[in-house]
Design a protein that fits this description.
The chain has about 130 residues and is an all-alpha fold. The chain is built from 3 helices and no strands.
Length: about 130
């Protein structure tokens, strides 16, 4: 009489072991898939880092050619980002765009100042454009 219930318990245990094995196999396949994805991602990140380094060198060369202090621009952008985060203003992308617009405006103002100095006028001077 005890053998029937023992056989049933063994069968239940075997079924659970089989289910566990199937799950374990699925998890193993997922882990292998994740490992492949991580390797692909690592290769892409390396490529992007190399491309970014080349772009940084080109930008620094252009900046040096135009007399722009790259470190000062980075420091200013960092300060603006920190101020924006504490004030709760926009994202870093907006701050970077504002910094670019500010730099462009400063470059335009410098050019206008140089032109005005050559002509002997100042912006807003009544004699301007006469």
């Amino acid at each position: 009489m005890g053998f029937g219930s023992t056989a049933k318990k063994i069968q239940t245990l075997a079924d659970r072991a089989e289910q566990l094995y199937v799950r374990l196999k699925e998890v193993h396949e997922r882990v292998l898939s994740v490992e492949g994805t991580v390797e692909d991602t690592q290769a892409r990140v390396s490529e992007l880092e190399n491309a970014l380094e080349h772009q940084r060198l080109v930008v620094e060369a252009i900046a040096e050619e135009r007399g722009i202090d790259v470190d000062a621009v980075i420091a200013e952008a960092t300060i603006e980002n920190a101020d924006g985060e504490t004030d709760g203003e926009g994202s870093g992308d907006a701050t970077a765009a504002e910094a670019t617009a500010s730099d462009d405006a400063a470059t335009s103002d410098d050019a206008a100042t140089s032109d005005d100095a050559a002509s002997g006028t100042t912006p807003g001077d009544p004699g301007e454009g006469a």
